[in-house]
Amino acid sequence: MNKKLIAIFATTTVLLLATAAGWSQMLARVHGKCTDPDGKPMAGITVEFVNQETGQKYPLKADNKGEFNTIAIVPGKYTVNLVQDSKIIHYYKDIPVTLSEEGTNLDFDLQKEVREAQKNPEYQKKTVEQVKENAKITTLNKMLTDARTAEQAGNWQQAIQTMNDAIAIDATHDVIWAHLGDAELGAGSTATTKDDATPHFQKAIDAYKKAIDMVEKTPAPTDKKGAAADNKTTLGKYHNNLGQAYAKTGQPKEALDEYTTAAQDDPPNASMYYFNAGATLTNQATKETDSSTKQKEIDDANAAFDKAIEAKPDYAEAYYQKGINLTSKATIDKSGKMVAAPGTIEAFNKYLELEPDGKHAEEAKGLIEGFGATVTTTYKKAKVTPPAKK
Fold first, then answer.
1. Nearest to 49 by CA among 22, 68, 23, 24
2. What pLDDT was estimated at residue 70?
3. What is the separation of C-alpha 375 from the centre of its chain, rounded to a whole number of angstroms?
4. Model confidence pLDDT, tens digit, residues 120-161
5. DSSP string, 166-224
6. Distances (CA, A) of 91 to 46, 143, 203, 343
7. Phi-psi bin for 287: left (phi > 0), alpha (psi -120 to 50), beta?
């Protein structure tokens, strides 16, 4: 075999699965108006949207007319705080923000709230309960933020403890269970031995299942027009990460089922889910000793990469990994020359077309040339600046 091919094959590593915690999403528009108990515009008040799933905050400043507007908020379910002089004077829970052409219109009328209080003697009691609930939500949101900070620093045990403490306060929020799963998955992935990793992965599986079950059993909130908000994106993310946990524990069938479900639930992100399915099958093939089974898993992996490409035609990484898998089907002709399987060179050239300076660019170019083919894209080798003369 060509030495260049041997060298590149030797550096091929197990594929990493893509997490679903921070994918790019379409952003929604939100606009509305705030009026005080006298019916006057609440000029300068801060309308703070707090995502009940992620804890992410979007503080919006009302203008002189009490109106606020943004075109950059992630769809989801929110707690909305009306903040004046750094204090929350009122809040609204389970406010849905959805994608629509006209945007989500939200008017917060405190005069109406006063009228409701005058009609309903129980209103004051309800208000006190809301204040207590709001304080609890604020605490939980801070714990979610602290856990994410710990995860980013690689302090997985701290993140796990924080999420367990949050569950002790209120175990009814799917997002807390999902973040516990993320922390356990991270702890298992960085463990030094299988014995240390396995318990974390199993706890991640249990946490993600809990989160999925809670979402499926909770009716989706409705907007002012009575339209139900969509929980499918959330379910897609949870099923994807559950698939990761299954893949980590050597359960590829269960992992593939979860990725397929994720793609069905959340078509806009189907490319990532199908890529993870391909990665799981590829990783499984590297461990397989039976040649026929190995080739079937590689074929199935490439079918998944094809689905990822169909969902996202510019998915460069999927083209590259498909090309890598196809190299296993290379043959040797009578002259001893390596002959690439159909589609191999095309996959690598497409990768180079999409990412001429990508992390696999040199390997893709080397494989194309190793098979005696020609790079047909605009890919050029990076120039090396010579050291300055002394």
1. 68
2. 86
3. 34
4. 666 656 665 666 676 777 788 888 889 999 999 999 999 999
5. HHHH----HHHHHHHHHHHHHHHHT-SSHHHHHHHHHHHHHHHHHHHHHHHHSPPPB-T
6. 12, 20, 35, 57
7. alpha
pTM assigned to the model: 0.66
DSSP codes joined into one string, 52-105? TTT--EEEEE--TTSEEEEEEE-SEEEEEEEEETTEEEEEEEEEEE---SS-EE
The region of weakest confidence among 48-57, 275-284, 296-305 is 48-57
Burial (0-12, 13-18, 19+ Cβ within 10 Å), 154: exposed
Q: Which residue has tokens 């933020």?
A: 145
- Domain positions in the chain: 315-390
**CB neighbour list of residue 303: distance below 8 Å, 6 or more residues apart:** 278
Residue whose entry in the numeric block shows the structure tokens 């306060």: 169
Q: Which two tokens stand for residue 173?
A: 């929020």
Q: Could you please report the per-residue DSSP string of 136-176?
A: HHHHHHHHHHHHHHHHHTT-HHHHHHHHHHHHHH----HHH
Q: What is the phi/psi pair of residue 74, to 5°? A: -70, 130
Strand partners of residue 109: 35
Beta bridge partners of 77: 96
What's phi and psi for 135, nearest 5 deg? Answer: -65, -40
Q: Using CA atoms, how far apart are residues 241 and 173, in angstroms rounded to an integer?
A: 17
DSSP code of residue 357? T
CA–CA dist 103, 70 (Å, integer): 10
Express each pLDDT in 192-209 by its tens digit.
998 999 999 999 999 999
Place of tokens 């993320």: 182
**Residue 356, φ and ψ in degrees, nearest 5:** -60, -25
Terminal alpha carbon distance of the chain: 44
Higher per-residue confidence, 120 vs 340: 340
DSSP bridge pairs for 91:
81
